[in-house]
Design goal:
The complex is a heterodimer of chains A (325) and B (327). Chain A is mainly α and 325 residues long. Helix content of chain A is 71%, strand content 1%. Chain B has 327 residues and is mainly α. Chain B is built from 13 helices and 2 strands. Classes of the chains: A mainly alpha (325), B mainly alpha (327).
Amino acid sequence: MTTNIAKPKPAIPDLPVAVLLAGLSIGFFAVVALVTGETAQLSGEGIAGLLQRMVALGLVALGQTFVILVGSIDLSVAALISAVAVLASHVMQGDPAMMLPAVLLCLGFCAVVGFVNGALVAYGGINPLIVTLGTGLIIQGVLAASFGVLQGAVAREFQVIAYGSVLGVPYSLLLLATLSLAAGFVLDRTLFGARIYAVGGNPDGARLAGIRTERVILSAHMVASLFAGAAGLYLAARLQSGTPWIGRDGIYDLESIAVTVIGGTILAGGKGGVAGTLAGVLLFATLDAGFNMLGIDAFLKQVLRGAIVIAAVAVHAVRTKGHVA
Amino acid sequence: MMTVPQTSASLRRPARIAINAGLVIFIALYAAIGFLQPNYLEPGLFMNFLRRAAPLVILACGQLYVILTGGFDLSMGAVATLVVLAASILINGDPDTTWAVIGALYVMGVSIGLVNGFVVAFLKVPSIITTLGTMLLVNGLALAWSGGAARGDLPDNFRNLGRLVWRDVSVIGTLPLAAVVLAGFVALAWFGLNGTVYGKRALAVGDNPRAAELAGTPVAATRILAFVVSAVSAVTAGILLGGFSGVSVNAGEGLELQAIAACVIGGAQLLGGRGSVWSAVFGALSLFALFTLLNLLGLPQALRDSIQGVILIAAVGASMWRTRRRN
């Protein structure tokens, strides 16, 4: 068999989905803004505001894309976001000098959580849903038991991440853009990225090809946890102090999975990419903004969101041959 | 090539051991409860324990059907919430309408199950996403309908389903109606999997859908029916919950994950192919015994989550380790 030597390009198949989704989202947003007469939303500032809605979910979803691509999943991100937000505000206590230690401590904690998740999945052979549900419960429980009341706040200077901007572009957007490009680069252009697609697409094949699949899975989990940590830090900066429920109230675990799958990444792994995920996040952001402009009540918004999640995945899943569970 | 008898034998053996695992964990936990609080060993308090565990056990049985076929149902908790809120709004304190409303609730449950099943089987949307969607949708509907707060009232004949306890029953002393409902539901669930061809089909579909299809199993119908059973169990659990914990907008919150955890602790295998009703029943009883035990130990509510997480990983890790050693 020499015909399959041409290297499959994983980024290409998910591009149309990404473009289509992004187009639809922007179209929906523009139409709603024009219909409701809120043309201010279409100005540079309005667009920046819209894109800022993407930051928290976007960061988590980028990490989620890595684990889903490798054929795993991470449900612990919501609890981890809360933990990081609480930890950051607790350590900083408003003192700018503590900014760097707090950030390093948080990211270190995330790396440890990611390592534990990855080790249990890759070396323990335990189903990733169970592992990350379990670690999520553990983190959430300890957090709620020990930080029930608000304690501490992040430094004013730290809030620049959420509120500062350069030339009209918020820093938070630059952060998301930079990390997205980095994630895209790693997945498309590096050996590590190629290994992720290989392990997700066919773990046995990857192992036979000499890839240490366990290490790849473990690394993907650490990446996901670090991205969740970045989202937690951003939320702490935006809200000034963390509460133990930020992550859970935002349903960041399930929503990050939903946007990743909406963006064309397959839950079984090996297919998809960053572009689709970002388009999925953009869809959620425009829906949110659009529903707000239309004045749809919060509960109905949730109903529509549920229906759209199913419909958005169904659009490309319906062509799947064979069975899904 | 592996011969057929070998595969089926190696498939059956872990299942039997897994059942024992759930039962062993439950007995150990309940013994610990009895050690701390000896009157839990009396039939009366045991019956009370069963009564309070009933919704979780019923949910776990329903969830098991979906897990066996290789899927998940995340919408159960939302369905249970909807049932509690809808019942109190529709009945609104009028005992004459109770049975008609219960009928309507089941129709509603079955239709939610059908939607889940059709989307998974024909639109090919993975069940974790489908039921996440219906979870958001059903929760939103329940909140929009009730206006975000509990209203209406549940009459006594509805609440009795979860609350009524017959006293002076011979041998066991007291008998809660919820325990009877529980026994009935478990018996039906057991019959569905062991007394009909459905159980074999569900296992086959969960193990290898393509092979099951080639062998003539109606894969789509098997999946859809699993989601319907799951939704029906959520309605039943919701009715019991409305009976003893009253009407609230978060009556069913988090129950879907507890039900999945229960099945897994009892030895059912995620993504299908292994498990029995007993894994659901003893897994759920273990989980509930754990909650009771932590309560008796006076641990903060929040730490229960943590310990549940540890037990979850440990139970699955232990069964993985046993399977690996055997191979």
